[in-house]
Amino acid sequence: MRKTWVMVLALAVSAGAAQAADVVAQRKVADNWPEFELNWRGGSGSKGALYRLAPFHENGKMLICGAVQYLDTGNYRQTRSVLRGATLTVNGRVVVKNFSFMNRIKKNEPLIGAQANCVATGADYPRKFDEFRVDYDNRPRRF
Description:
Elements: H1 2-15, E1 23-28, E2 35-39, E3 47-58, E4 61-70, H2 76-84, E5 87-90, E6 93-97, E7 103-104, E8 115-124, E9 132-136, E10 139-142
Parallel strand pairs: 4-7
Antiparallel strand pairs: 1-8, 2-3, 3-4, 4-8, 5-6, 5-9, 9-10
């Protein structure tokens, strides 16, 4: 009985965490989606990742969709770690923590037209976007 209770509790706690399994839809990446680039300083391989994120309206709530291309395999682990720690703030509210939900697109394939994974944010879809900001370890990048 005790083991069953611990297992049920563990499942209930892990169900609330945002993970790649929380993907609820897919959308095709369009050229009007905001583009973000993550690069590293110094060294010969300074490329990190190129990715696109966009908000979508779904039953009054906001979905965030994204796709990523890792540009340098030498920096893959570092770049992936930074993206897992990234947050997206919309109008002063953090709506996504951890960008691991994004669909990974091969480097030699076009990002535009590729399938992006979408996650439900739980936030209401705003009437207008005053802020759409990505933070990496508390360092903002506004777009």
